[in-house]
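Predicting holo structure, flavin mononucleotide bound.
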Amino acid sequence: MEYTELIKKRRSIRKYDLAKPVSEELVNKVLEAARLAPSACNIQPVHLVVIRDKKIKEELKEAYGREWFYTAPVIIAGCVDVDASWKRSYDNFNSAFVDLAIAFDHLLLAAANEGLGTCWICAFNPVVAAKLLRVPSNIKVVALTPLGFPAEEPAGRPRKELKEIVHREKY
Ligand SMILES: Cc1cc2nc3c(=O)[nH]c(=O)nc-3n(C[C@H](O)[C@H](O)[C@H](O)COP(=O)(O)O)c2cc1C
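Done. Tokens:
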């Protein structure tokens, strides 16, 4: 899909076609998009956990209880190494979450380009998710997304006008 059309068409999907499996080829395509994302100092601190196993998905409901989430064909956990990521010398700002956000957005857009639905999820219990997925302590689970073919076509959510968010010359 043409890029401007793609960013207009992507939606958060909260209903998946459970009868339509997602091939490993498609999963690899969206993972590859995340791999190509830029990161501060090119450190590439992002890690992705791909979950297909029904039992593990079911267990993840303890972290985020929405049925449309834990029953989706695939779940991807976006994780980042907060020790390895770049830190700004002036104020020790850690780029880990920024790096993760860029990679995850690449992944979500690549999925939409393949006709797949996703939904960025942050309102999960990170302690439960990290324990369940056996994530080491220096790695933070920042976001989760279901991945599957959409079984809904939600209307676009409203966005602020450009004039509300753009400041010319000075804020
Ligand atoms: C950082 C972030 C966290 C989000 N967390 C959740 C979440 O926990 N649960 C959920 O259903 N949607 C979540 N969303 C999806 C937003 O609600 C959604 O992106 C927003 O309403 C705009 O809708 P759209 O994605 O369809 O354009 C999150 C989105 C972002 C970017």
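DSSP finds seven helices and four strands in the chain.
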